[in-house]
Inverse folding.
């Protein structure tokens, strides 16, 4: 197996790189000259490629994950010394930095970009704002986010554990000024990215196509990031076959190579005490073997600038800016070797000017918009979600926004785009890769909550979803949970036209739970409550921010006494039927521990004997939540209220308060009545980050709450607001949210709470 990582493997080329080397290298040369500049007078000693000419310089940037931030420091010194670069070859992070520099970004601009990136957020899932609204609501049911595919009777796991949508969006922003360039030889500096063919083990050289796809393929670390499906082949990180592609640069244009390998000090025996460390070291040995083979080809006229980073690992992306000065120091140590290739100020300025001319491209009018790669998804439906139309002037910002909209719909593992010219017509093509595990999905989840006083709820939940039942995008869903409560839901979400604005949605539901009832502070009864029914709704999606539904439902509620006084709530059965109106709004930025945005809802229900109910009554309820953040601090404000409008709603349809952040200190749903009003202010701070293998962060915070339930079920007299508060610690973990909190309320009520994988009812 190790031989797969060694340098004698076959080479696959995506395009060629010969005819346009000079013009393509010009922009690269400009950038390189800025980086490699040397003091006046040094250029006279530079070797010549031909009489009267200078040698063509190829910059080779090695892979290394976050350690590759050192490449920016190298480039800063090259610019300072006025050393031009005529072509670039890069692998993994070297391909990212190399591609950005090849498009004309200076070292200072690159440093600014990576310093402003929130890497932890970039490595998360795409923001929720543009996710289809009906799918957003699953975020608060399936908090673990374990999504599998169902194919050929088996379960298919995702190909990577780290979401790449925001990574790809970052790449698009970095190389935005080159989005019209299909041939990498025509970039300001000609560029090549190296990846690995996952099926054959061959080296793949990208020198044409979509630049962001080449960048993504080159850094697709196996297991962490999903492979890139391009031209019918799967591509992963080029480090496996050519972590330092010296030969690729030499073949493309280089008379002289400046090679930059980045790495860590050799691991000591004490550091190899775990299976993970041993596996990592074995991979490093294989990668270093192909890297050393490339370094062995360097000649005296070439320059090697090794960068050793003591305290930055490949996965420390939040430390990328810290790697820059380390690379800068390494380049200064090689100053004497680099000085041979420094240009005079006048020659370097002319080189930079040539690069700028190459980089400038006139705007194009788009004649056609295409979607390529679709199988299950209908292209006409997807085109309705694109803002760019034929006749528009190409706008990379708008095209990026369209790409993000497609990504956030949840059907695609990757979306890229490119502008090509066919028979004098400019074609904007969005290349999509449908999720390998779709269109049949299986979601798994687990949850546990307790107040340490005997009220414990738990659930093991599975959800089967079939998307794109038809060309309009119909979705079938069946959900089941075993535990407390037991749940079974079967539903259909069926758009009725191509824009997917209007829809119908029938749902069959059944659930069973155990509820504790209180007389004041005394537990008086435990009821087994079972609900079932059919709900038929029609509605409209209000963009991706909201939804309105109008519907009818019919079913029943059965209550059975488990423990306590049957005189409090008599067991029995009730027929239910009525009309519903629901409005929901959700623009919260992320599904768990959100930091900004708002969400709200309004629900009205009218029970009608004419539809089959045992009694007439009405109820309305509204909620609103807004979040504000600054740095690691988040403040949330929430308010909610409801009433039965004096219609004497039955016990099972009354309002409930009690539990963490919902009148903390009280037992869960301890306060039950026909009217309520509640407000909460919650502050939390992210005080620690954790490994991505386990989650993202640890939070601590507090809440202040005020509210009450009126016209209570237990007939307790109520006068005004009750006050409560809590202190809590939360973890955004791979198992979903974890909360441990202590609540205290007016009257001396107090309780400890633990929630694992459960979304709380107010500010989550």
């Amino acid at each position: 197996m190790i031989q797969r990582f060694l340098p004698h493997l076959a080479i696959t080329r995506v395009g060629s790189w010969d005819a346009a080397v000079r013009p393509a290298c010009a922009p690269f040369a400009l950038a390189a000259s800025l980086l490699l500049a040397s003091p006046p007078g040094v250029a006279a000693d530079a070797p010549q490629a031909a009489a009267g000419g200078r040698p063509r310089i190829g910059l080779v940037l090695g892979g290394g994950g976050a350690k590759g931030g050192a490449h920016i420091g190298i480039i800063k010194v090259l610019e300072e010394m006025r050393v031009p670069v005529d072509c670039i070859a890069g692998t993994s992070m070297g391909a990212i930095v190399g591609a950005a520099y090849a498009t004309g970004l200076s070292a200072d601009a690159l440093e600014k970009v990576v310093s402003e990136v929130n890497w932890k957020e970039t490595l998360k899932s795409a923001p929720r704002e543009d996710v289809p609204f009906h799918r957003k609501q699953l975020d608060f049911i399936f908090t673990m986010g374990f999504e599998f595919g169902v194919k050929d009777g088996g379960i298919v796991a995702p190909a990577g554990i780290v979401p790449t949508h925001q990574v790809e969006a970052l790449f698009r922003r970095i190389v935005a000024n080159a989005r019209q360039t299909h041939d990498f030889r025509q970039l300001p500096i000609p560029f090549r990215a190296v990846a690995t063919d996952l099926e054959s083990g061959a080296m793949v050289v990208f020198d044409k196509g979509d630049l962001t796809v080449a960048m993504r393929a080159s850094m697709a670390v196996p297991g962490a990031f999903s492979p890139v499906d391009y031209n019918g082949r799967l591509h992963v990180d080029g480090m496996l076959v050519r972590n330092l592609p010296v030969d690729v640069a030499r073949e493309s244009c280089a008379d002289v190579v400046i090679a930059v390998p980045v790495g860590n000090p050799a691991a000591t025996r004490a550091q190899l005490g775990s299976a993970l460390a041993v596996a990592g070291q074995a991979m490093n040995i294989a990668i270093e073997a192909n890297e050393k083979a490339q370094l062995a080809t360097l000649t005296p006229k070439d320059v090697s600038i090794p960068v050793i980073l003591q305290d930055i690992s490949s996965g420390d992306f939040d430390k990328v800016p810290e790697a820059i000065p380390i690379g800068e120091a390494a380049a200064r140590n090689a100053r004497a070797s680099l000085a041979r290739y420094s240009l005079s100020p006048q020659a370097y300025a002319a080189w930079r000017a040539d690069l700028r001319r190459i980089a400038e491209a006139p705007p194009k009018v788009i004649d056609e918009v295409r979607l390529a790669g679709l199988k299950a998804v209908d292209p006409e439906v997807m085109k309705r979600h694109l803002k760019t139309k034929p006749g528009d002037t190409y706008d990379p910002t708008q095209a990026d926004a369209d790409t993000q909209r497609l990504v956030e719909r949840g059907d695609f593992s990757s979306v890229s785009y490119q502008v090509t010219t066919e028979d004098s017509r400019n074609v904007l093509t969005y290349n999509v890769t449908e999720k390998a595990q779709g269109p049949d999905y299986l979601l798994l989840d687990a949850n546990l909550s307790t107040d340490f006083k005997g009220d414990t709820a738990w659930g093991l939940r599975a959800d089967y979803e079939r998307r794109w039942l038809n060309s309009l995008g119909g979705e079938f869903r069946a959900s089941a949970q075993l535990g407390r409560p037991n749940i079974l839901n079967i539903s259909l979400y069926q758009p009725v036209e191509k824009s997917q604005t209007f829809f119908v949605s029938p749902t069959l539901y059944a659930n069973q739970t155990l509820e504790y009832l209180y007389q004041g502070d005394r537990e008086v009864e435990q009821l087994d409550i079972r609900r079932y029914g059919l709900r038929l709704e029609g509605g409209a999606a209000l963009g991706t921010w909201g939804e309105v539904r109008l519907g009818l439902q019919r079913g029943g509620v059965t209550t059975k006494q488990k423990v306590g006084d049957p005189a409090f709530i008599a067991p029995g059965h009730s027929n239910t039927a009525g009309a519903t109106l629901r409005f929901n709004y959700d623009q919260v930025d992320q599904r768990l521990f959100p930091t900004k945005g708002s969400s709200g809802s309004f629900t009205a229900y009218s029970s009608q004997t004419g539809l089959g109910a045992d009694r007439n009554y009405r109820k309305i309820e509204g909620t609103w939540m807004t979040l504000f953040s600054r740095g690691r601090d988040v403040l949330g404000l929430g308010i909610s209220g409801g009433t039965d409008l004096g219609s004497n709603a039955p016990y099972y349809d009354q309002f409930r308060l009690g539990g963490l952040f919902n009148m903390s200190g009280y037992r869960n749903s301890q306060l039950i009545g026909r009217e309520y009003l509640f407000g909460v202010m919650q502050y939390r701070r992210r005080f620690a980050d954790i490994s991505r293998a386990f989650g993202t962060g640890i939070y601590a915070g507090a809440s202040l709450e005020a509210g009450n339930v009126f016209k209570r079920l237990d007939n307790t007299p109520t006068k005004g607001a009750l006050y409560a508060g809590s202190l809590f610690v939360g973890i955004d973990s791979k198992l979903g949210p974890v909360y441990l909190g202590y609540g205290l309320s007016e009257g001396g009520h107090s309780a400890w709470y633990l929630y694992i994988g459960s979304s709380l009812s107010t500010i989550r």
